[in-house]
Write a structure and sequence with these properties.
The chain has one domain: VKOR domain (de novo design (two linked rop proteins), Up-down Bundle), CATH 1.20.1440. With about 130 residues, it is an all-alpha fold. Helices cover about 75% and strands about 0% of the residues. Helix 1 runs antiparallel to helix 2, helix 1 packs antiparallel against helix 4 and helix 3 runs antiparallel to helix 4.
């Protein structure tokens, strides 16, 4: 199970990096400092209560990383799974939006989506161990 926790820690670190990058980009967009159009300027960049997706992602990745040492406790795993399902569902919607609505490239978005889906898979694998 050590490899699972290590892999999940690395993925959370990558998610934190992508979230911080996108949060900073959103701040630059607010100040009018972006030279090109960006997904952070769309309404889909703030899906939940006007909070930026990057901020939600940052909280999610940090919280999940903090709970990893306690995953052997069923209640902790249950909450982590619920959060991971929500993140994966949000990523599915945002990925669809990137492809068919926004139609803008966003490597950091796709990185976060892949991380969210991988974290969900690893949580399920962890439960089986």
């Amino acid at each position: 199970m050590g490899w699972l926790l290590g892999t999940m820690s690395l993925l959370c670190g990558g998610g934190v990096y992508a979230s911080v990058f996108m949060a900073r980009k959103a701040e630059r967009a607010k100040r009018g400092q972006l030279e090109e159009p960006s997904v952070v300027q769309t309404t889909r960049a703030r899906l939940v209560g006007g909070i930026s997706n990057a901020t939600i992602g940052l909280v999610y990745y940090l919280a999940l990383a903090a709970t990893l040492p306690f995953m052997s406790r069923p209640l902790v795993w249950d909450f982590a799974l619920a959060a991971s399902l929500a993140a994966a569902a949000m990523s599915l919607y945002l990925a669809y939006s990137l492809l068919f609505v926004t139609r803008r490239p966003c490597a950091y978005c796709w990185t976060s989506h892949a991380i969210n889906w991988l974290l969900l898979v690893l949580l399920v694998v962890m439960r089986r161990h």
